[in-house]
Amino acid sequence: MITKELIEYMRSEMTKGTQIANIKISLLQNGWVEKDIDEAVSAISLNMGAVPAPAPATTSAPILETKSQGQGSAKKIIGIVIAIIILVALAGTGYAYYTGYFTPLETVSSDAFKSLSNTTSSTFDTTIIIDASDLNKAGGDMLGELGNLISDKITITSKGTYDINDADSFKMNSAISLAVGSVSGSLEFIFKDNTLYGRLTKAPALSFIPVIPAEYINKWYSFEATAENAQSILPTSSIGLGPESMKNLNTEQKMEIARMTGDAHFITIIDKLETESINEVLSYHFTFGLNNQGINDYLAKLESYIKSEGKNDSFLSSFNTKDISESLEKIQNFKGEAWIGKKDHRLYKFVISFDVPTGDADEGTIKISAVSIFKDWNKPLELSAPANSVPFKSLIEQSLGEARTKGVDAQIKAIISSTRADAEVYYSEKNSYKGYCMSDPAGLIAQGKGSAIDGEFTCKDSVLAWATSAKVSDGYFCADSTGTVTDTPKPATGTSCSK
After folding, report:
1. Angle 4-15/34-45 helices, nearest 10 degrees?
2. Burial label, 1 (beta-carbon count in 10 A; 0-12, 13-18, 19+)
3. What is the pLDDT of residue 182?
4. Given this model, what pLDDT does residue 323 score?
5. pLDDT tens digits, one per residue of 446-489
6. Domain residues of the chain, as ranges?
7. pLDDT tens digit string along 54-108?
8. Full strand arrangement of the beta sheet holding 485-488
9. Full 3-state SS string of the chain
10. In angstroms, rounded to a whole number, what is the distance separating the alpha carbons of residues 35 and 227?
């Protein structure tokens, strides 16, 4: 929204001779949106010859004041997301040394973890469901616009394959779908030869999101990346360590952390169930719960080791696991179920579910569940890069260029349109249009001063008529004394707009 404070600040800076581009940068850094800034520039340009004296003592860009809404809820939801990542990492990839009532399953589960050290590829099928309907009932409009959108639940499904056999030639493909209430969307991505390819296969239909043109659907776009960045989306060999931390560790340190993870006790086996085949692989089947004490013991050891080894590295020295511990404490009603192959002791399926209260008892609870199925362990992935992909960088540059052009055109058209009123004011004073083109603001425009029009500008006047025109991206824009305001193929050649 354009405010008086914004206009006064911009006029003050223009009077000092500050370039508009620099004024814009300062405003953007202080929270103003580009649309409001451009509209303010246009409004000031309409009064080019009458820039008032600057408002008193405005020495820095005004800060856009915004109300903070739902900060507590946002922090809680961030905690929930952290909890999801931890649980998917621990159960979804088998990074656990299971403890419990059945000794044979301890050995089987330990083997499932240890087998990951020689795992190079796998096919996965994962669905996560986040049910926030209880929040809408208990918390009313606590989630605001998002709460209205999420009528029941969010469902995220990811299916694909990855191959890390060659560290310098990481490969992966995945299809991801998202359903939010009655709204859904989907996309695919491929990583090959240090390039990430992505395409939107179904665009969500939302009233507050602009309609995505059909030519952008099902079209592959490419992004420059590295194998290291791509692999960061895969679970690491340790719970609690993100890809940035792992990058700062050497091979020996990573191996020690993997050993610590293998010795940790993350879950407790609850019940042994009948064996069952998953993708034609006969598997041990059991239920499990979280071992919070075992997890916290592991996190404390991990933090101590990272800080000790990274005492000369500021990033590693700042490492802490407090947020993870606090997120785990919020988890309620956790249930887990796993299937591990009888012959190869590899993880083939897991199911987890848990609740996370968002705060006070009357604010409601978010229910989260996840199912992951794996197959084709260590089966090489054959993958081809999409043909005819478009570099995403060039798309952004093209879009920004088009947006700038449209913005400049709009300003030019507004200035030309405003000359009608200026000309009538001149006529009321002189009883003639003759000389109008030499007066302000038309004269200033012609000299290229204080206006968005820095290209071709034409102004013609006579006693009884006048016309102005300026170059825009697709031709010319013209106004004249007959009341005409229109796009034209060529500039005004007399005191009327060209046909």
Report:
1. 60
2. exposed
3. 75
4. 79
5. 665 556 676 788 889 999 999 999 888 889 999 999 989 999 99
6. 1-66, 71-391, 406-499
7. 333 344 555 444 443 344 444 444 444 444 444 444 433 333 333 222 334 555 6
8. 457-461, 466-472, 475-480, 485-488
9. CCCHHHHHHHHHHHHCCCCHHHHHHHHHHCCCCHHHHHHHHHHHHCCCCCCCCCCCCCCCCCCCCCCCCCHHHHHHHHHHHHHHHHHHHHHHCCCCCCEECCHHHHHHHHHHHHHHHHCCEEEEEEEEEEECHHHHHHHCCCCHHHHHHCCCEEEEEEEEEEECCCCCCCEEEEEEEEEECCEEEEEEEEEECCEEEEEEEECCCCCCCCCCCHHHECCCEEEECCHHHHHCCCCCCCCCCCHHHHHCCCHHHHHHHHHHHHHCCCEEEEEEEEEEEECCEEEEEEEEEECHHHHHHHHHHHHHHHHHHCCCCHHHHCCCCHHHHHHHHHCEEEEEEEEEECCCCCEEEEEEEEEEECCCHHHCEEEEEEEEEEECCCCCCCCCCCCCCEEHHHHHHHHHHHHHHHHHHHHHHHHHHHHHHHHHHHHHHHCCCCCHHHCCCHHHHHCCCCCCCCCCEEEEECCCCEEEEEEECCEEEEEECCCCEEEECCCCCCCCCCC
10. 38
Two structure tokens written together for 461: 């006047």
Residues composing the chain: 499
> What's the CATH code, domain 71-391?
2.50.20.20
Copy the structure tokens of residue 401: 């260029």
